[in-house]
Amino acid sequence: MAHYGQYRGLEMLPGLIVWGSFALAVLLSFFAPLVAVVCIITFDLYWLFRVLYFIVYLLASWRRYRYTERVDWRKEVEKIPGWESLWHMVFLPIYGEDVSIVRRTLKAIRETDWPKDRMVIVLAGEGREEARIRGVFHQLEKEFGGVFRKLFFTIHPTGLPDEIPGKGSNLNWSGHRAQEMLEKEFPDVAPEHILVSALDVDTLVPPVYFSYLAHRFLTTPDGLHSSYQPLTLFTNNIWHATAPVRVAAFGTTFWLLTELSRPDRLWTFSSHSMPWKMLLDVGFWQKDIVSEDSRIFLQGLIRYHGNYRVTPLYIGVSMDTVTGATYLESLRNLYRQQRRWAWGVEHLMEMVEAFRRDPLFPRWRKLRYLFFHMEGMYTWATAPVLIFLMGWLPLLLARQDPTLLVQAAPGTLALIMRFATLGVILTAILSMIVLPSRPRTVGWWGWVVMLLQWILLPVTFMIFGAFPAIDAQTRLMCGRYLGFQVTKKQRL
What we know:
Number of strands: 7
Strand content: 5-15%
Largest sheet: 5 strands, mixed
Number of helices: 17
Structural class: alpha/beta
Order of helices and strands: HHHEHEHEHEHEHEHHEHHHHHHH
Helix content: 55-70%
């Protein structure tokens, strides 16, 4: 298990590649502008290719998503022998959230069509706010104590060795306590028959979620060697969010929707599900990293020598967007959230070291995971900067060059960008479809704003996409490690 600072060369590599690319782009623009123009056109063509396959995979996933909404999954799962033996266990880590947020999440789980006598809910509080969280637990016990087979409460102590404060260490603690509880109170329930859903505390699951998850688990070959990733919809409070926050939220949703059609490169993200048996085998969530939601997939991948994957769930779970007391604070919180997600670059050290030690892990799968991880982190940080900022620098410097390529370059780049806007248009249309009902506190003009906000995409793409990723990779390069920062949840 790699720890911060243990492999400084690998920690520095992503940031060095990013900053090296920027430095090379500037140097070529001044000293070899023709070469720079060729590189920029090549990069833009590559980005256009990515936009086109984004559209193809987005439409394919959208079709599956709409189909899933129309199916009675409780009826479908009841057709499968052995479904009666499955249990669902849900982990809800809590830190700072008002009881109303947790209550709404539990109500959504209560309204699902899965038998509640085969559901265990684990509410995982933090010792840093023990007095408050005990009051929250007391209220929830009165309201939901008799609803599920077990409503289990844990409080993660502060100051434990070899961990950083955050969701991962909380889940690690609550996982061990849940294991003790299950062995004591439900010894006849086999670990292979328990599916775990680790949900952010603001996650609202649809009524068929657990039936659909069970169906996917039972119909997936070797389902115990797979995690299960639903579509994340940041729509709980979307009507009251700021425009840049909304654009970033929908961008994340539709990026994930395209990834669902490519399970060969899919990782777990945010709220997701997995077998309890896998958690036991890996020793639960790693407690000294920030990106625990994706790291738990990597733990399974390494533990089973590459025989682990993510199965897409074409169903949406809704969550909150980031908020703040003021417009500026909401933007600041959005930046911090994106930087925390971009901190997933930390997985590189674990992958390289684990792959190096494991001869049973197929070499081709090692190379695929390393490439997709590096390519994704690199383009996240560099694409907006190279396209919207540095892409025009060599053209300005070489505008007097009579070379046909240079003279045709501005028109070529403009044409590429027009084609690329097809992805923006499609995303804007689909975002209007997944919107929840407009609240009465928002006027009719809210629909107009929802469409016009997509004009902000280039700016949002840059400030709340590339810059947080550059920030994260630069921090890792310099050894300024990022601690876990809780996303503020607020319902209006």
